Amino acid sequence: MKASTYFTTENAQRYLGTLCKHFGHKVPVTHETASGRIELPFGQCDLRTDEAGLMLIATASDRPQLDKTIEVMSGHLDRFAFRENPELTWTFEGAEA
User: Distance between CA 61 and CA 63 in Å, rounded?
Assistant: First the structure.
């Protein structure tokens, strides 16, 4: 199951780096200049930046684990980007919304 969201921000690379560094102390993380992957015990999140913002793509084996992955990633981005007050709308694929 998969869900994705896009956060429009001029600080996408900074948030990508902050998220990857934060989770890298706890779980496997891959971080490159414009992309990253965070592998949580219950799902994973792929992150990509472009000139306009940050894309988050969460995947998990079932809906409860996907929801938990979304909750964890959204919560952390909310804390790291609190000045911008991200309002994330997740789009679900392969799952009932």
Answer: 7
Distance CA 97, CA 31 (A): 30
Strands 35-40 and 53-59: unpaired
Q: Model confidence over 51-69: pLDDT tens digits?
A: 999 999 999 999 999 999 9
Task: Compute the chain's Rg from CA coordinates.
Answer: 12
What are 54's two structure tokens? 């940050």
Indicate if the alpha-carbon torsion angle 6, 4, 66, 43 is positive or negative. Answer: negative
Residues 4-32: what's their mean pLDDT? 97
Question: What is the per-residue DSSP string for the chain?
Answer: -EEEEEEE-TTHHHHHHHHHHHHHTTS-EEE-SSEEEEEETTEEEEEEEETTEEEEEEE-SSHHHHHHHHHHHHHHHHHHTTTT------EEESS--
